[in-house]
Amino acid sequence: MFSTVERRLAYLRTDMGGAYRWDAAKARWLPLQDDESEPSYMGIESIAPDPVDPDVVYMAAGMSARMPAAIFRSADRGVSWRKTAVPFAMGGNEDGRGMGERLAIDPNAPATLFFGSRHDGLWRSDDSAATWQKVVSFPLPGLGKPARPRTTHGGLSFVLFDRARRGRIYVASADPGAQHLFRSDDGGNDWHAVAGGPSPDLLPVKAAVGRDGVLTITYCDYIGPNGIKRGEVWRYDPAKKAWHDVTPVKGAAAVPGGYMGVAVAASDPNIIAVATVNRYQGGDTVWRSADAGRTWQELSGTSTRDVSATPFLDFDKKADFGHWIAGLAIDPFDANHAAYVTGATMYATNGFNQAGTMRWAPWTKGIEQTAVITLLSPTGGAHLVSGFGDLGGFRHDDLTVSPPRVHLNPFLTNTNSLDYAGKAPAVLVRSGNTHKPVVPDTSLAWSGDGGTNWQPLRVPPSESTDGAPPPERTGNAAITVSADGGTFVVETARPILTRDRGKTWLAVQGLPSRVRVTADKADPRRFYALDFAANHLVRSDDGGATFKPVASTGLPVDLSGARAIGREAANPLVATPGRAGALWLLVGSDLYRSTDFGERWERATTGIAISRYGLGKGAPGAKWPALYAIGQLGATKGVFRSLDGGAGWQRINDDAHQWGLRLRMVSGDPRQFGRVYVATDGRGILYGDPKEGVK
């Protein structure tokens, strides 16, 4: 969203990675919430730059209906924030997250703000968002929170002031009903429904008003981004009380999908643009009109995308225009400068009003808005290999640039597990899933060159024991590789292994179904797992062919706290690189260690509650590898390090770097002492090194 009072000032909201501000002097986006400690506040429902003071900005934050929600206000462009917890729920990462903006500031009385909530009607503040009151005169009080946790309402989809007409406000509802657009002409005291427009089964999702007072509104049959099958674009002229259907493609020529992004040029209200959403036949696109919607130019076919700075977008050697184009904006100070947001990136152009081919390029420097499921740092090759949600994952040869090597052949949208061979680190294996309930081909792959190239790995057809699709068809079958890279163990319903890259398969004996397997990083004969039914460790001493119980001592009586729940969960049992039989196990929040192949264990930690952990190269002369943990020490949550086997811990992040504490995995680097990698849920991968002079 561009500021209307200062050139080259813009803000961006994300569904789980917080908010950003464009810093023109630094030519990069700056994250505005890295100091945030509440996970819910990284899901931004709406953002509103002040229409008078360029230093002032507001945002509504709340991940979902059953998580905390607040209105943030800043007088220094988001460098610091004041927060007001609010009683109305939000859904920054729920369906309908592309609608809006729900938060709006009165341009003639900038201390007054309105917020259109999902579940509880319209709210108002007259003290710069410090306190909020429900607008009881608004006709729709709200439907209340949905009964089921994973459902939601669209609620009030946008609040829009007409800057040129004092006191005029529009509010739209994306809930089912006979009326969807409402107007006030006295600053929000009295309201009336605006008659006319499309059929009531279409829902208004976004709108823009030109300096001529005419609204351009995009409509969908669902709040999206998925599930939209139909949409239209309408314009409403309040002076004439007239509606006009200006949908770019109508009738038999229309393909399934809707319209969401919308923008009007500040310099000329006849220049408007709209974006399609969820249009899978032909892909989404942007339409531009220079005559108020009477004729349209479709832009995807007459544009180019330069993705040289972000090469992973070029999956098929021709980056597509994008999908789920919910956000679309025209710079109010430069109508040639426009941008749109897709489900994968944000594109911008400086030729929006120019004839001929339009060049777009990612406008993303500084943005890391990705969910990272897993990562590993091998003992050779690239120092980092990742598994992402939606993007599959990468081999990271250079941590300072966008990685070109996305995991392909097969491309699995989510990579759920990764492993490498401890003594042959060029051998990697992965498992994952697609956005479909069942993976069309295979959910498994292996690489012999450190993740540069991959080969699909297919297992024999099997049947699930519970009637559901077998785990290898859904991405639930994790894969593990032996230390020498010669054996792959796959956690199918009945575990199997291959020693010839999938040509032949053998049933694994003694290994329970649906448990995570860990390979020793130095001894290729050894594999380990937990048998939760029998409540003990099992080990293979013959390269995975058979597993037998280990008469372990020192472990808790109940090992259920070590169960990895879900296909994206990190394995609680980790082997130490370069040391045969050296194991670590997280049970609940306590860490245990063994140096003799799991025979004897001792509790390694006291005082710290760990949720995720990883190993790195030990300090010079140290007995133990460096331990890195996401956890809580006393009242402090964060990222911690131990150099003495878990006895003492030091926090290695600080209050300015908390990233919403949405942290999914942590690992050290086995080759570089002090290097740590953190997988976040919304802020990409973070890596850190000790400050100079700090051990």
From TrEMBL:
Q: What protein name is recorded for this chain?
A: Uncharacterized protein
Q: Which organism is it from?
A: Sphingomonas molluscorum
Q: Which residues form a coiled coil?
A: none
User: Record keywords: Zinc-finger included?
Assistant: no
Protein family (similarity comment): Belongs to the glycosyl hydrolase 74 family.
Stored PANTHER family: OLIGOXYLOGLUCAN-REDUCING END-SPECIFIC XYLOGLUCANASE-RELATED (PTHR43739:SF2), XYLOGLUCANASE (EUROFUNG) (PTHR43739)
Ranges for the region named Disordered are 442-474
Where does the secretion signal sit in this chain?
A: none
Q: Which domain of life is it from?
A: Bacteria
What SUPFAM superfamilies has UniProt attached to this entry? Answer: Oligoxyloglucan reducing end-specific cellobiohydrolase
The UniProt keywords, alphabetically, are: Carbohydrate metabolism, Glycosidase, Hydrolase, Polysaccharide degradation, Signal
